[in-house]
Amino acid sequence: MLPALIIISMKLIKLLSIFCLLSFSLHAQRNPDEKIIVTGSIVDSLSGKAVEYPTVALFTDSLKLIASVAGAADGKFTIEAPGKGGYQLYASQIGYVNVKKEIHLDGSQRRVDVGKIAISEGENMLSAVTVTAVRPLIKNEVDKLTYNLEADPQTATSTVLDILRKVPMLSVDGDDNVRLNGETNYKVLVNGKSTGMIVKNFKDVVKSMPASSIKSIEVITNPPVKYDAEGVGGVINIITHSKPSGYNGSVNLGANTLGGYNGGGYFAAQLGKFAVSTNFFAGKFVQKGSSLSSETESFVSEEFKYSSSNGKSNGHNSFYNFGIEASYEIDTLNLVTLSGWGYLGNSFSLGSSLFEAKNSLNQVTRKYVRNSDNKNTYGSGSGSLSYQKTFKKPDQNLTFSYSLDASPRNQKTETEIDPEINYAAYLQHSFNDAMGYEHTVQADYYDPLSKEHQIETGLKYILRQNSSNTEIKRYDELTNEWILDRSRVNDLDYNQHIANIYGGYVYKKKIMTAKAGFRGEYAFNDGVSKSAHGDQIFDNSQFNIVPYLNFSFMLNKGHMLTVGYTQRLNRPGIWYLNPYVDDADPMDISYGNPGLNTVVRNAFNGGYRKSSQKWTFGANLGAFFASNDIERISRMYDDGVRHSTYENIGRNQSYRLNANLSYRQGQKLNIYLNMGSSYTHVSYSEADLSNSGFGFNGSLGCNLMLWKGSNIYANAYLFGGGVSLQYKNPYMYMTNFGISQRFFKEKFSVSLSVTEPFRKNRVYELDYSDVTYTSLSRYTYQVRTANIGAFWRFGKFNTVVKKARKSSSDDKMEGGNNTPER
After folding, report:
1. In 3-state terms, what secondary structure has residue 424?
2. On the CB side of 559, how many CA atoms lie within 13 Å of its CA?
3. 720-767 pLDDT, tens per residue?
4. CB distance 240 to 281 below 8 Å
5. How far is CA 466 from CA 71, 184, 410, 818, in A?
6. CA nearest 599: which of 525, 636, 672, 651?
7. pLDDT digits (tens, 9 = 90+) for 682-724
8. String of DSSP letters for 610-645
């Protein structure tokens, strides 16, 4: 299987490489000799230092826009003039006043350097022109990487999941699980704040959320102390669109040949001191013609030595989401922000499977048909209120905030067993109602003592309240009634209290920036697991001091080196702790473990980044160690039933190298390459289990604009080899191709695309290994789809937003514009 995948992957890479090289060649041929290259650099008027990633626009004397480009991390820019003549060059950046420079090109030189252009902080007063900000596709910073969706032409008609496949250090496996540095355990934030909508339903949300509702995605593998220590893989911070000047909005629609569809909209407006933005999307995700088969050999049962299962299913998910964010600027020093999210999802699936077991003599000992009808309802509601006091000293601020998340989940399963050999018939209804609340109160203080020294500190308290109630009924044909089975009660009431304090310090000297800090976190768990055998009360507490240390060196010509160390925590959530027994398949049952403990992982990171106006390159090497990793463990018993749950049993050591490279020539050509390779060793000495191996993920793609308003793109992805204690993820690949066209001054666009044009179905295989059994499962599902989408935007877009000095969304210690979670 692996050699064949490698051959296929190499062919796909070769095909895409030819496409990208051809695109590059076509683009190069479109540059006539008479064009003149204009270069220069943008600097701060006071400090004289380079302004990172400025926007530079070239206009004619009559103020007709010719081109706009994004400068590099060192402030340098290159822009093309169509020929000799007089032009106006505008430079801008968020928080700075637009500056105009008149230039005259006499045509005697094909490359003209206009030198340094100084811009100063403040609000824009120029009204003659409006400069649209141009952002690099990938922005490498000291301790995070930012992928700008506004710079990706596929954003208008794609889902967030489609874009996540292209983000460095992120990958998507065959089951559409998003991984950060190969991990499925990480912290997800929206605008720097935790929200239950995203955290608990991340996979479902990103499969349905339009990418046009997102501004950028930040990947933080070495989070500073201001971030919660939860999430061993790091932090994914999703940034939505910021408040506008005036109003703007968008509407998007999409559909595919599997029967899925989606639609949504975004609207934002500002009137004086009041600003509001709203987001809505809804749709349906369809999965047709899925089949699942498995073959198992038991080492503990002679009667059920060999077993097999073969089944088919169809399903679909419906989803609805609404979000709102509003702010009111009381005065220049006081700001109040209110935000809320709501998400509701419904999934339905119908399936039928045939189970057969044989003894060691290969004689059939059990056989039955299982029909299932599953209905799941899940959702989340989130709200937050914050107040920020800004002092007269620039950037010094104090913030207080409160947030509430509510996350209901309802699962209904109807199972019918039609026996053929050695099994009893029954009809069963299983119900599980789970509910989670999370209250968060926090206070944060930031003080830039001087240009060289900065400090920040904060307090935070979280109360998580989770409950799960189970009800199982079986149909009695004699009485024609549903009978409650009280012997199978599995209920849970669980409270988790987390109190933490953090302190951070930054020292900047010439090319070096040093960051250090600590985060003290105390967690107390109090719960009761209820069953027919009585109530089991459990409580435990844990105190962790999480250190953070990071050094970065900004060398000449945009070169950056970083090295750091921190710890990350994995506190098991309700879905790991819930003791509810899912026995929809009576030969393969699963349940949570309320006795799980917090995982502590040590993380060492080193990185190199190089940015220019056209090229961006980044590489990161990490080493990670944990002694009590949570692993999903499956065991076979002598009755032939496999039990799966979670336990703190794994010693995990992993090493990972990530690299990303992108080339961008204005809006006409973009080529990107992302790669990640890892080696992982997991062991459980008590059960004499261990597993190790290499994993790999990568993506290659390009966008090409051959004519005005067009975008032709091709992408290929490869993922696999990730190691768990009992299995390795298989290698899989994916391709998609598409074309889009913008109309009406680029306000309306239509796209057509094909996913997996070279094959109809994908086969996802997992090979499980344990001292009690071995098993090979094979999941086949339809992947080839044709997609159509439309996107319309309206309102005022070319706005210049002043530097936010009064918003709790400022990430001052990182030089960003969004609040990290504290």
Report:
1. coil
2. 3
3. 888 888 888 888 888 989 998 989 877 888 999 999 999 999 888 889
4. no
5. 49, 22, 13, 30
6. 651
7. 998 777 788 999 988 888 888 888 888 888 989 898 888 888 8
8. EE-SSEEEEEEEEEEEEEEEEEEEEEE-TTS-EEEE
Name the pTM for this structure: 0.76
If DSSP codes are grouped into helix, strand and coil, which group holds residue 156? helix
- Give the highest mean pLDDT range of 119-123, 231-235, 268-272, 492-496: 492-496
Q: How far apart are CA 652 and CA 680, in angstroms?
A: 7
Closest CA to 153 of 211, 236, 208: 211
C-beta of residue 150 within 8 angstroms of C-beta of residue 216 = yes
Question: DSSP characters for 579-617?
Answer: ---B-SSTTEEE---TT---EEEEEEEEEEEEE-SSEEE
Residues β-bridged to residue 735: 716
Tokens representing 219? 């990947």
Dihedral angle over CA of 438, 441, 447, 453, nearest 10: -40
Q: Which residues pair with residue 454 across a beta bridge?
A: 506
- A 10 A CB-CB count for 379 gives 21
Q: Which residues are 721's β-sheet partners?
A: none
> What is d(CA 409, CA 425) in angstroms, rounded to the nearest whole number?
29
Neighbours of 225 (CB within 10 A): 28
Angle of CA points 532, 537, 542, to nearest 5°: 145
Radius of gyration of the chain from Cα atoms?
28
Given phi > 0 = left and psi -120 to 50 = alpha, else beta, which region is 34? Answer: alpha
Q: Which residues of 496-527 are buried (b: 16+ CB within 10 A; e: fewer)?
A: bebebebbbbbebeeeebebbbebebebebeb
The two tokens of residue 150 are 């506004």
Contact 684, 651 (CB under 8 A): yes
3-class state of residue 776 by DSSP: strand
DSSP H helical ranges for 630-700? none
CB neighbourhood size of 373 (10 A):
15
Give the separation between CA 32 and CA 278, rounded to whole angstroms. 45
Q: Which residue has the tokens 């990490």?
A: 622
**Quick one: residue 113, left, alpha or beta (phi over 0 = left, psi -120 to 50 = alpha)?**
beta
Distance CA 131, CA 461 (A): 43
Give the separation between CA 87 and CA 107, rounded to whole angstroms: 13
Contact 194, 403 (CB under 8 A): yes
If one counts every other C-beta atom within 10 angstroms of the C-beta of residue 45, the result is 14
Would you say the C-alpha torsion 298, 304, 308, 313 has a positive or negative sign?
Answer: negative
